[in-house]
Amino acid sequence: MTHATAIAHPNIALVKYWGKRNVRLNLPAVSSLSLTLSHYRTQTEVRWDAPRDVVTLNGHPPSKAQAARVFAFLDRIDGARPPCAVHSDNNFPAGAGLASSASGFAALALAATTAAGQALDLTALSVLARQGSGSACRSLWGGFVEWRRGEEEDGTDSHGIPLEGADDWDIAMVAAVVHEGPKPVGSTAGMERSRETSPYYGEWVQGADADLQEAKAAIRARDLQRLGEVMESSTYKMHATMHTSRPPLLYWHPGTVQILHEVASMRADGLGAWSTMDAGPQVKVLCARTDAPQIARRLTPHATRVDVLVPGGPARLVP
Amino acid sequence: MTHATAIAHPNIALVKYWGKRNVRLNLPAVSSLSLTLSHYRTQTEVRWDAPRDVVTLNGHPPSKAQAARVFAFLDRIDGARPPCAVHSDNNFPAGAGLASSASGFAALALAATTAAGQALDLTALSVLARQGSGSACRSLWGGFVEWRRGEEEDGTDSHGIPLEGADDWDIAMVAAVVHEGPKPVGSTAGMERSRETSPYYGEWVQGADADLQEAKAAIRARDLQRLGEVMESSTYKMHATMHTSRPPLLYWHPGTVQILHEVASMRADGLGAWSTMDAGPQVKVLCARTDAPQIARRLTPHATRVDVLVPGGPARLVP
Hints:
The structure is a homodimer. In chain A, about 35% of the residues lie in helices and about 20% in strands. Chain A is α+β, with helices and mostly antiparallel strands. The interface between A and B is medium-sized, with 29 and 29 residues.
């Protein structure tokens, strides 16, 4: 086969990932835990052995840097590869803190290796996808996924591990988009700035394992409040390392803070809703599926777009 | 004398104060450094030996809790005092993170002790004012004031110390008010929550002395950029301990973030402007006096009120 198409969903970290122990291999300083989401998806078609290297994103050529990142990733699959054609489509805003690089590199890893005639298992695909974008290693699986930082220098033990719990638990994630557009500082540059300059970075790294254990215990107990609280705590700790970087990394927008206050107000009204943000201004709200419509209605006046997402499935080939 | 009137100005911390080593005496966990501001002022009249205890704030009775705080403060001056009448007026928003309690308790300390016939020096007044509101101990003096945390259990070594530097340096502070109204969590309760629950509180306390030394060196060198950068860093570190408290203390409003981005944008345009925030949503921007009008113009679309303030003078009696 020299041609394959794959779909993957983005994932949102509940225990957050910020900081690398190895930049080239995308090895994280902390373990993390995510929820793969439905509805949002990247679909990527790879032709292995094309007339020339070409890549499109939603039908248009991406930036030179993005194209170079894609081809460097294909070189990892086969250093002597032929020219390749990559066509990728997202049905949600890219590069805006909605994890489009996670679904993007997960879909690319699956489509490209299949097109190249390689049959990798999910763990090997996760190790590969991680090298394209760290969080992509969690998008090979659906539901809850743990990403252990690992200890090996070559990163072979740093990959996603699927967890039980999402299939029989009616939870949802309401994504409130407050600003579409690329982030001012990319994640890798931002993580390095935090590692080098934030006085709180050491404590951030030290506390991550306890958050991971707390989140796993909450998932085992199907305790949404407990999971929501550790997610919010991990989120604020991560953004605190961003804010205290020099110069400060302020990914929040006015609308971000508006929604954070609205979520606090919903909780004061007895609604179970907990917020998280990544390296961008959007807010995602974890809640029970039955509460999602009401929460979406309350967020709508403050957002340019609100989507109700539920746990999504694994990356897969399109026949 | 049984009657006296005093004026004091609020001060804004450049090296921030957050956290107490003794709540009853308002002894801080960290040393801090402030700039006393012009224009904004509290004027307080005290009649010592009145028909009954009475207090007004801007002509109206304050909350019971505020009134109790005023009379408890008078009890510290004389445990066997007669009934007292206190009338206090602010020409700026109170209880909104603009340091009205600093000017308030500095003016009250000076007016009440004078009315009671006590002649205290400024250091003794500072120790007294601190017990009403911690930051009030810095408002006895004009310009730059250091507040050393002190080591004594009784707080006698924890008071303001005036610094040289503000008289011959043309700096300004542009205050952008984005939301008037009381803060959701008072400073004392907020500080205790951070001390008890923020994982970054220990590092916050540990780093404060270095910030103080850096700010004093910047003032000695009349280096505004250096002073602005350590002020911003101290500010973000303080707010990070607030955000990582459980539950989070989010004093920021949407307008706060709007102005933080505008200040970053001004700096990108080559304008020297650095931001600070206290336990409230307002942003104060440190700059050269010659740049203040331009900075005020750029902040005006994002604020409900913008004031250009310069270094102010000490607390004083009104004849």
